[in-house]
Write a structure and sequence with these properties.
It is built from 14 helices and two strands; from the N terminus they run ααααββαααααααααα. By secondary structure, it is mainly α.
């Protein structure tokens, strides 16, 4: 039997040249097609949300995968069409009105701060002289940061409201990519799972599971949190008699995509709307109405954070607030609104991969202690139950002292 010809092995220099060439090609493609990357990301997110529905129809109802994919995408299309009906247009009109209100407020902010800086405020024994602070430069920096984002949001809302051809083409592109990925999801997933480096199969497997858990928790869990928060905020703003209640509800829901900064900004905007609207049905002063709105928004937000989010998402991301703020700044500077929305899971993924790289660089095992145990603290009882137990414990202490 003739021997098989020996396959030549690439040298280290050849491997380095090929790797650098591939990286350069990827960077060139990234820069060339930078405008379609947000649409590809949206397609991936939408696929991530649609695939579980298709899997449920396929496994539980025994529906063929292709039929289940077609049915799920039909529902998505109907939902998008429903957003362009009377209810959707009303929501868009309220969002436009809310954005215009914020823009008018920002334009009048320099004059308002100039008036305030010329006054002194006495608070008991303290005298606050605002002329000592350079409010003008602070205002310019604030406007320079906020106005471009508002311009993009306003343009996006306007394009959706007018049904611009470009926006329709983008929606069709996102839906088409989502459909084809969903339809061939099993084959694509099987091909991706076969990609591995010899000797690193276990590392790839555990990293894939950890990254999947991060994005599962954020996308699917966060979507439910956003929907519930938006609904509750809309009901709250309607009950408090605040203008643009539907727009504020949508804003409050979307703000949950941006940890810390999002809910704070949404609450501040709601307070400003209450402060500058003509009146309210409680008969309160504008300042009193704004304070009431702030208190109610804080109670609602804290209730969602402590009671709802742990039940839905757990603590998979488990990021420090400083890391979240850094991620928000980086995401906003690199990818605008989409970067803001995806900053938290991106930072969590980067930290996971950074830990893995650090361990490998110093010849340490990534799994002892494991780096993929993200956000898995010991389970705790609900906060109300813990308060009740603490109250009972305090009640028992005096009784024990009296018996002694």
């Amino acid at each position: 039997m003739s021997e098989q010809p020996r396959v030549p092995v690439w040298s280290s220099a050849t491997k380095i040249v090929v790797a650098v060439g591939i990286m350069a090609l990827l960077v060139a493609l990234l820069l060339r097609f930078l405008n379609i990357i947000p649409m590809l990301i949206l397609s991936a997110i939408l696929t991530f949300l649609v695939v579980p529905v298709v899997q449920f129809l396929h496994l539980r109802i025994r529906m063929p995968w292709g039929l289940a994919a077609n049915l799920a995408m039909l529902v998505v299309v109907l939902l998008i069409l429903g957003a362009s009906t009377a209810t959707g247009l009303a929501a868009i009109q309220q969002l436009q009105g809310l954005v215009l209100f914020i823009q008018r407020f920002l334009l009048s902010l320099p004059a308002t701060l100039e008036e305030l800086s010329a006054q002194q405020y006495v608070l008991g024994p303290w005298v606050l002289d605002l002329s000592q602070f350079d409010l003008a430069s602070i205002t310019e920096q604030l406007l320079g940061t906020v106005q471009p984002i508002l311009g993009r949001v306003s343009g996006l809302i306007a394009s959706v409201a007018t049904g611009a051809i470009e926006s329709i083409a983008r929606v069709v592109f996102v839906l088409a990519i989502t459909y084809f990925i969903t339809f061939d999801y099993r084959r694509i997933r099987s091909a991706l799972l076969k990609i591995s480096i010899p000797g690193f199969e276990e590392d790839f497997h555990r990293l894939r599971i950890a990254l999947s858990r991060i994005w599962h928790a954020f996308l699917r869990g966060q979507l439910l949190v956003v929907l519930i928060t938006g609904l509750l905020t809309w009901v709250l703003m309607t009950a408090l008699g605040v203008r643009f209640s539907l727009g504020l509800g949508i804003l409050g829901g979307l703000a949950k995509f941006i940890p810390i900064v999002g809910p704070t900004t949404a609450g501040l905007i709601a307070a400003l709307v209450a402060l500058f609207q003509p009146g309210n049905w409680f008969g309160l002063t504008p300042l009193g109405h704004a304070v009431l709105v702030v208190i109610c928004v804080i109670v609602l937000d804290q209730g969602i954070d402590y009671l709802l989010i742990p039940r839905i998402m757990g603590t998979t991301l488990n990021l420090h607030p400083v890391v979240i703020l850094i991620g928000l700044l980086i995401g906003a500077s690199l990818a605008g609104v989409l970067g803001l929305l995806l900053s938290a899971p991106t930072m969590a993924s980067a930290i996971l991969l950074g830990k893995y790289t650090y361990r490998k660089m110093f010849d340490l095992s990534p799994w002892d202690p494991p780096i993929d145990v993200l956000g898995r603290p010991a389970p705790q009882d609900p906060i109300l139950l813990r308060w009740l137990r603490a109250y009972r414990a305090r009640r028992k202490q005096p009784e024990a002292g009296g018996d002694g």
